[in-house]
Amino acid sequence: MKKTSLLIMAICALLAVACQPKKGSDQTDATIDSLRQALAQSKSESSDLMGTIDQIQEGFRKISEAEGEVVELNTEGGTSREDIVKKMTALQERLQQNRELINSLQEQLRSSSQLNDNTRRTFENMIAQFEQQLAEKQQTIETLQRTIEQREATIASQAGQISDLNTSVQQQQSQINDLQESTERQSQQIQQQQTAIAEGQRTAAEQSQRIAQQEAEMNTAYYVFGTKSELKKQGILQRGDVLRSSSYNRDYFTKIDIRVTKLIKLYSKRAELLTNHPAGSYVLERDAQKQYSLRITDPQAFWRTSKHLVIEVK
């Protein structure tokens, strides 16, 4: 966290230097206003970038915690394979989430329009470090997976040895009916346990899939922007009402993950939200070409009232 704070201070200093007007220059009021606007947008973009960086660092922390839990489970006696599989699945999911966040950070950096070269290089170096750290974590997880597989192979080998021993005992004690019955009961118990383990694994996999699907649905939203005539043509806008008819063209909307997509470029100099979203949860920004972009500053609040966003542009 201390390194992150120092980095934020360094970035803010770079932004301040990059956007400060030169003394003695004959800049017009319009140019000064433009610089102020650039500085404000730079701070907004830097804030978004730093927010994503904080999420990535928190993700790496959780990955390290999950690694420790898997190692502990793998070394404990009597730990079921189901528990280890669950932990490894969660570990892979956290790694994938960080990979997606790093990709999102790269996209944010590519789409930023106001960062100066020094600030941009700072973020690029950080992304390179994250990618290296991600590769190292992936290698660690693969090594851990091999260790778990070796443990399972050892257990399977031991189970095979037990089975061979039971067979030998049956052959030597074929005339002792009581011992044969005991051995058969033990074999049935082992089969029942194996069946129960297999059923538990299947149930756990189904639950994990349902949870992942539910989470994806909760964080899925749809947006569309177009001129009034385009929206009317698709049945989205009818007689001044938005999405009142069930016959509108759903394929015209773009599907997004609200955890990832926070900036929507509108490529227009005029834009108006037609669906209802809290005013404090978003801002309409203009770039150097005066074209609007929608920046969602509070995704949870923005999408709470509706998971469909309709914007009219001209």
What would you say this structure looks like, in words?
The chain has 314 residues and is of the alpha+beta class. The strands form three sheets. It has a four-stranded mixed β-sheet with strand order 4-1-9-6. A three-stranded antiparallel β-sheet has the order 5-8-7, with no helix packed on it. The chain has helices at residues 2-19, 29-75, 81-111, 117-172, 177-218, 228-233, 299-302; strands spanning 220-226, 237-238, 241-242, 254-257, 263-265, 271-273, 282-286, 292-296, 308-313. α2 packs antiparallel against α3 (81-111) and α2 (29-75) packs parallel to α4 (117-172). A hairpin with a 5-residue loop joins β7 (282-286) and β8.
Q: Please report the number of helical segments.
A: 7
The total tally of domains equals: 2
Q: H/E element string?
A: HHHHHEHEEEEEEEHE
Q: Average pLDDT, to the nearest integer?
A: 81
- By helix and strand content, what is the structural category? alpha+beta
Task: Indicate the proportion of strand residues.
Answer: 5-15%
Helix content: 55-70%
End-to-end Cα distance, whole Å, is 45 Å
- Number of DSSP E strands: 9
Q: Estimate the global geometry from the Cα principal axes.
A: elongated
Residue windows where pLDDT falls under 50 for at least 5 positions: 1-29, 31-36
Query: Which strands sit side by side, in order, in the main sheet?
Result: 4-1-9-6
Task: Please compute the radius of gyration using only Cα atoms.
Answer: 29 Å
- Largest sheet geometry: 4 strands, mixed
